[in-house]
Amino acid sequence: MANADKTKGYSASEIQVLEGLQHVRMRPSMYIGSTSSRGLHQLFEEIVANSIDEAMVGRCDRI
């Protein structure tokens, strides 16, 4: 696609509608950066950081 003519448009028939989490399953690196163990580590780190943030603003009392 990078070499495609950028002046050429596309039509609605070329758009693929994905349901639920299909888009994440098809292109996980777009959301987590890497599909290696480093990406898994990043996901875990993000979950912990978000949990701590929620606790600090008083939205939960356990992590």
Describe the protein's architecture and organization.
The protein contains 3 helices and no strands. By secondary structure, it is mainly α. It has a domain at 37-63. The chain starts with 21 loop residues before the first helix and ends in a 7-residue tail after the last helix.
Beta-strand residue percentage: under 5%
Give me the count of strands: 0
Q: Could you name the ranges where pLDDT drops below 50 across 5 or more consecutive residues?
A: none
Q: How would you state the average pLDDT, rounded? A: 87
Secondary structure class reads mainly alpha
Shape annotation: elongated
Q: Report the C-alpha radius of gyration, rounded.
A: 18 Å
Order of helices and strands: HHH
Helix content: 40-55%
Distance between the termini: 44 Å
Number of helices: 3
Q: What assembly state would you assign to the polypeptide chains in this entry?
A: single chain
Main sheet summary: none
